[in-house]
Amino acid sequence: MRVYFNDENQTIVNNAFAVKSRSAELANVYVDVEPVQFNRGFYSVDMTFCFDVSVEVFDRPCGRTGRKPCIVSGIAVFNKRVILFGSEGNVKVFTSDHENVNNESCHYNDLPKAVVEAVDPVFLAARLVDADTPAEGAQIPEMFSEKLEGSFGCVVPLKLVLVTLGLFSIVKLERNVQMLIPAYDFCIPDKECVTSSSDPCDLFKNIKFPIDEFFPPRFNEHGTGSQGCGCGDSDREH
Q: Which end of the chain is more exposed for a tag (fewer CB within 10 A), N or C?
């Protein structure tokens, strides 16, 4: 992914000799859900991941003595699409807290809700490359420019920073359904909790010795179990 910088940081990158990865953080995820045509019940989930990326910029070979590397921050963007089953729904939902200009209390609930769970990415690599078409690469996406301070578009990017990030995520579709759950009346405890005053040594003696913690698990002949080795006593190793 390309990292977008403001004009001040892009000037530093243009004069860079090399870059080194420092940190990456998942800033936001923009999600859009659309039904898949000719495949009822399935929906496409388009996700745009926005990362805050920091790299160390060297203006000379890293092994030479001199100034310390300059740390610059920018934005990296990655798009991903998945298709999931989300069932169908064609009902009107009436709520008392729904706000709109007409003071109506209903809205349609045709689409399921997409939920994306992700952790901060693993910074795998960063490299510096020359911009093939500097004039075309001067603009940062407008929806992300507000996340960076400073001016944009005045410095032509002569060099680009490309990063590789590893991201673990879970994407799911959620829809409200009707479920019948038995309900019970609350109960008041009628017994008093008595604190045990027994000897702690006696309590420890009643705990089963954790044998499994001291010995590695054994696999049976199918390689999936830990009880028994699938052989007779005569073949057992001691």
A: C
Q: Using CA atoms, how far apart are residues 63 and 66, in angstroms rounded to an integer?
A: 9
Specify which residues 169 forms β-bridges with: 118
Residues 92 and 158 in one domain: yes
Over residues 143-159, mean pLDDT:
76
Q: Which domain holds residue 74?
A: 3-174
Beta pairing partners, 161: 128
The two three-digit tokens of residue 55, written as one number: 């790299």
- Total domains present in the chain: 2
Q: How far is CA 15 from CA 55, 89, 90, 208, in A?
A: 14, 56, 58, 67
Distance of CA 207 to the CA centre of its chain: 41
Q: Is residue 52 part of a domain?
A: yes
Please work out, in degrees rounded to the nearest 5, the angle formed at the alpha carbon of residue 103 by the alpha carbons of 101 and 105: 125
This model's pTM is above 0.90: no
Q: Which of 174, 192, 210 is the last residue of a domain?
A: 174
Say how far apart CA 160 and CA 13 lie, in whole Å.
7
